[in-house]
Specification:
The chain is an alpha+beta fold. The protein has a 3-stranded antiparallel β-sheet, with helices on one face. It has 7 helices and 3 strands, in the order E-E-H-H-E-H-H-H-H-H. The protein has 2 domains: 54 residues, Roll (Ubiquitin-like (UB roll)); 82 residues, no CATH class.
């Protein structure tokens, strides 16, 4: 399993790129690739950029959210981020940035929790499992593949 790293560059200003990599060296290389293709970083800024800090992110930290997000929703977000299970209609809409549909499907989930769900997604989930319908559907397809692989590897004699 690949880890998520936050790689920060220092120049006149700072830029941080989150990348998924198997090692710190790979994270640095991937972050440099992202820096090179960043349309908002000028060529002068890129030339003077040096890596300032590389930090492995601890994903799925629920400590700051346990009293702000309903427990079933928080547990579902963690399982989704770990590609262990699919999410229901509410979280599918929320993670896809469809606020209207999320509100319509929220049921008993208080609107006050929405801000904290968004913060949890941004700070604790892999960046490519939320933010647009395209990202969410791609993540969902990966979960389906994982579930199929697990079913194929089950002992059917029992």
């Amino acid at each position: 399993m690949k880890n998520t790293y936050a790689v920060e560059f220092a120049a006149t200003t700072f830029r941080t790129y989150e990348v998924e990599a198997s090692s710190e060296d790979e994270a640095e290389a991937l972050a440099f690739d992202r820096l090179e293709s960043d349309p908002y970083a000028s060529s002068a800024w890129r030339k003077s950029a040096d890596i300032h800090n590389v930090e492995r992110k601890n994903m799925f930290n629920t400590t700051h959210y346990e009293d702000k997000i309903p427990p079933l929703v928080l547990a579902a977000l963690v399982r989704w981020g770990k590609q262990e299970t699919l999410v229901g209609d509410f979280l599918m809409a929320f993670l896809s940035n469809d606020l209207r549909a999320a509100i319509e499907r929220s049921g008993e989930i208080p609107l006050a929790a929405f801000r904290h769900i968004m913060l949890f997604a941004r700070n604790e989930l892999p960046f490519h499992c939320h933010g647009s319908l395209k990202k969410v559907e791609a993540w969902e397809n990966e979960i389906y593949k994982n579930l199929e692989m697990n079913n194929d590897n089950r002992n059917t004699d029992v």
